[in-house]
UniProtKB/TrEMBL annotation:
Protein name: NAD(P)H-dependent oxidoreductase
Native organism: Actinoallomurus liliacearum
InterPro entries linked to this entry: CE1759_FMN_reduct, Flavoprotein-like_sf, FMN_Rdtase-like_dom, NAD(P)H-dep_FMN_reductase
Residue ranges occupied by any NADPH-dependent FMN reductase-like domain in the UniProt entry: 13-163
Keyword Flavoprotein: yes
Record keywords: Flavoprotein, FMN, Oxidoreductase
Domain of life, source organism: Bacteria
Amino acid sequence: MSERSERFMNAARLVAVSAGLGTPSSSRLLADRLAAATRERLTADGRPVEVTVIELRDLATDIANGLVTGFPGTRLRTAIEAVTGAEGLIAVSPIFSASYSGLFKSFFDVIDNTALAGRPVLIAATGGTARHSLALEHALRPLFTYLRAIVVPTAVYAAPEDWGSGGDAGAGDLAARVDRAADELAALMRDRPPAAAPAESVVPFAEQLAALRPE
């Protein structure tokens, strides 16, 4: 095995899920800032970090089909495997009507409700007004607590004024909250053993049936 392959297998797997709908999306921007800050802390320990960002906007149709049929398609299955195989998860949703978006909730509905048990999760959200920040505590945190994830104490909310006139996440108190939340997530990830290598892809049920039919 090459040194590069060995480093990849030992890399900490960090996944950020963004449910932003726009392009560019403030939810994606916040997910990127949180992932970069967490990665910086983990790499300071000398451990490589593999960061994957999942844009739920690109999976909206797949998620709807998965909810209706009960079977995720290839793209959705890949996203689910990334999330359930991660050692740390960052989950970011825009806030609509004082709660997470329907797309965000639907994605976590298609994941087995035991798959995130014991997983460190950093919750974050974006919205048009600072008044929606309470949704982190009355909507997102209870969701991941129900899924038995370990939710870091600091939740990060970003309103338009938090980004500054140039769209800079370093403006104001947001930078301090990002740093504190990244510290907490990185600390929890350090305490977890390296994730096992992903299992081989599951053979679709139709193919399994075809293999059992007589020639």
